[in-house]
């Protein structure tokens, strides 16, 4: 295998290892720190830019390997038709080797490109999931604080209601006392009038309307 296909295989292995790290179960805090570092680090951004350029070359290799695979398949078919079943063993071996190597290179570069797309999409999906979990935690804390505030306000309302009921009870008692005092004053005036009429004297203590 040539050096550029060897580098492609190494890149594919690195992509597989990175994918396993991204989808591996880990604590929320550790995963948040990891993805925050990967999304904000300048070094990681430079590495990602270099990988984008390398994937362009991998795409060129994929197109070349695809063409070679079609050519090797066509040559093998033509060799079978030209020999009418009496093909040379060495020729068949060479054609089979060419076909195998071209298919291997096609699959290698194709899977490398495909896994790069899957890896990028998985990274952003997990990053969005972390942001959603963070927003959910903030909303949960806000709702809990609002519940505590509303509970305190409800307690204040209950206290005010009790105070209002007590004030209304005092007003009712005061009205009853006023009525009792007025009735007692009327009775006193009536008794004073009867007494004065009976004795024929005017009471100096009689109340005037």
UniProtKB/TrEMBL annotation:
Keywords: Coiled coil, Endoplasmic reticulum, ER-Golgi transport, Membrane, Protein transport, Transmembrane, Transmembrane helix, Transport. Its main location: endoplasmic reticulum. Residues 156-206 form the Bap31/Bap29 cytoplasmic coiled-coil domain. The chain crosses the membrane at residues 7-28, 34-63, 107-127. It is found in: Endoplasmic reticulum membrane. Belongs to the BCAP29/BCAP31 family. This is Endoplasmic reticulum transmembrane protein. The lineage of its organism: Eukaryota, Fungi, Dikarya, Basidiomycota, Agaricomycotina.
């Amino acid at each position: 295998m040539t050096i550029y296909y060897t580098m492609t295989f190494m890149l594919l292995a690195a992509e597989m290892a990175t994918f396993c790290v991204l989808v591996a179960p880990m604590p929320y805090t550790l995963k948040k720190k990891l993805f925050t570092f990967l999304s904000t680090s300048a070094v990681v951004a430079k590495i990602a830019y270099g990988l984008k350029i390398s994937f362009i070359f991998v795409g060129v290799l994929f197109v070349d390997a695809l063409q070679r695979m079609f050519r090797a398949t066509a040559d093998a078919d033509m060799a079978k038709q030209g020999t009418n079943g009496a093909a040379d063993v060495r020729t068949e071996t060479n054609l089979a080797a060419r076909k195998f190597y071209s298919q291997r290179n096609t699959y290698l570069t194709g899977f490398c490109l495909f896994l790069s797309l899957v890896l990028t999409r998985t990274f952003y999906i997990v990053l969005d999931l972390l942001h959603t979990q963070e927003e959910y935690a903030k909303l949960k804390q806000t709702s809990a604080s609002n519940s505590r505030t509303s509970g305190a306000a409800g307690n204040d309302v209950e206290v005010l209601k009790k105070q209002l009921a007590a004030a209304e009870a005092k007003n009712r008692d005061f009205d009853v006392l006023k009525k009792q005092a007025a009735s007692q004053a009327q009775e006193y005036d009536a008794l004073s009038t009867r007494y004065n009429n009976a004795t024929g004297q005017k009471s100096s203590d009689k109340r005037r309307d």
